[in-house]
Amino acid sequence: MATFEVHVTIENKPGISDPEGETILNDLVLKGTHKTVSKIKTAKMLKFTIQEKDQKTAQSKIQEICDELRIYNPMVSKVSFDILKI
Length: 86
Prior knowledge:
Number of helices: 2
CATH topology: Mth169, Chain: A
Low-confidence stretches: none
Order of helices and strands: EHEHE
Shape: elongated
Helix content: 25-40%
Number of strands: 3
Strand content: 25-35%
Mean pLDDT: 93
CATH class: Alpha Beta
CATH architecture: 2-Layer Sandwich
């Protein structure tokens, strides 16, 4: 068995509003700083450490956990995985 660190990033699908990102961007605009920034999107990241036989199995198990616990809403969110062997 190998140990993996799995980063799960949950963010809104394209076309779904991101009020938190918009608030941060508006604050930058109101302050007049960082004028080159035109868009900010927020996301949530979860970090799991798991022991599995390979990366594919680790991702599958974490996907199962996220689905079982309803950590995200598949109607409005997209999920991506980064898997690192440690």
